[in-house]
Specification:
Shape: rod-shaped
Order of helices and strands: HHH
Number of strands: 0
Largest sheet: none
Length: 98
């Protein structure tokens, strides 16, 4: 007679749930940092990147919702600063000289 073991009940968890949450949190922080940097340099690239990352983080239900919203607001502010610079100076760079 052969002994066979029957497997016990298996608990299944979503293996990607903690990873997806961690990625969404990273996107929220990255959007905040890029939006903040975009106010000073390369706002034409960093502003839209911050907006996209913030939207992705919010769509993935990040735990850092406030940081994602700040990244979104800073990304929009980057584009507003870009529009003001183009309108006033006719350039896409800061000019402190006279």
């Amino acid at each position: 007679m052969a002994l066979t073991s029957t497997p016990g009940p298996r608990t299944t968890q979503a293996p990607h749930a903690p990873r997806a949450s961690r990625e969404a949190d990273g996107l929220a922080v990255a959007s905040f940092v890029l939006g903040l940097l975009g106010l000073l340099v390369m706002n034409i690239l960093l502003g839209p990147a911050a907006i996209v990352m913030a939207c992705l983080a919010l769509a993935r239900s990040t735990a850092r919702r406030g940081r994602a919203l700040l990244g979104l607001a800073l990304g929009v502010a980057d584009l507003v600063v870009l529009a003001v610079l183009v309108t006033v100076n006719g350039t896409v760079s800061w000019s402190f000289g006279g």
